[in-house]
Amino acid sequence: MSPAVQDIIDALKEVSPDLLRWSGAIARRMRSFNIALPGKHSGSSNTDALTLADLTVQELVVAGLRDRAPILRHCRIEAEEENGDLAAFAKESLLVLALDPIDGTKYFKDHTGNGYAVMLHLRTATEVIYSLVYTPEEGPHGTWTQAYGQTIKTGPDDPSVSARECLDRLPAVDPASRPSSDRIYIIGFQKNDPDVAQKVTGIGLQGVAPDDMPGSIYPLFARGEFGGSLIHTPNIYDYPVSQQLARLLGGNSVWVHNGEPVHFSETWMDDRAGMLRLPGIVATADSEEKLKKLVELARDWSRVRYAD
């Protein structure tokens, strides 16, 4: 018999904070070395960056999930890289664990910012039901962003207590008092990201291209410093966290060509980047008003990621 969904969530809440904190510490240390690796060839520096830290962190997280909470083996696992004991997890399951060992690898590798993150989430075909993001170099000891049930938490790590205890102590985000921002993260449009950001600014929002991002989108979105994102063919390892945050904040995440809520039943393999993606362009926002503006702007734009 398959375990209950709540049991899976409880297991993740128990073991994933330690794993991400340890992984973040390793990533932070490895960042001081030249650890770039070849391996991806999409033509986009944001997509193609790969480091030894990506592989090391994934190896640790996959092994930790396998060994510390065997119940998680009932989930299917999708990971951005191919290493780790992925075969220990279910080949088929309604529950999917997704990992992005170093989200923002280009910034991590090039030392152009501290907005990289170690992250995982649990989802079904239609919704994300648990997310945990750790940004190791935001703040003195890193920053957490967590979502489950009707709760979002974000705030500083405190290494004087266990990672689980630190998260338990963090107050929940109150959507009613959370600030409202018009800043929208733009990514996935290849060389056109800055042009798309300008177009978003032209409709009364504020488009922000990757090179102008002040940090990881997930704590920024949770805190209210960003109001959403516009992503061309998002990958299925990191984007879904934004969907969960948006829905808990009173917004949503939709395909711009039809305005329908995003689901995960249809994906495609981007062989150039070596990752699974959703089709089309996805708008995510914490309010229907912002979503409507983004959908109207991008409704007729090409859904094809690569022009050649």
Mean pLDDT: 92
Q: Structural class given helices, strands, pairing?
A: alpha+beta
CATH superfamily of the largest domain: Fructose-1,6-Bisphosphatase, subunit A, domain 1
Largest sheet: 6 strands, mixed
As a whole number of angstroms, the C-alpha radius of gyration is: 18 Å
Number of strands: 13
Helix content: 25-40%
The neighbouring-strand order within the major sheet is 1-2-3-4-5-6
Could you state the order of secondary-structure elements as H and E? HHHEEHEEEEHEHEHEHEEEEH
Q: What CATH architecture label of the largest domain applies?
A: 2-Layer Sandwich
Question: How are the elements arranged and paired?
Answer:
Layout: H1 5-30, H2 45-48, H3 52-68, E1 76-79, E2 96-103, H4 105-110, E3 117-123, E4 128-135, E5 143-148, E6 151-156, H5 163-169, E7 183-187, H6 193-202, E8 206-208, H7 217-223, E9 228-232, H8 239-248, E10 252-255, E11 268-270, E12 275-277, E13 281-285, H9 288-298
Parallel strand pairs: 1-2, 7-8, 7-9
Antiparallel strand pairs: 2-3, 3-4, 4-5, 5-6, 9-13, 10-13, 11-12
Helix pairs in contact: 1-3, 7-8
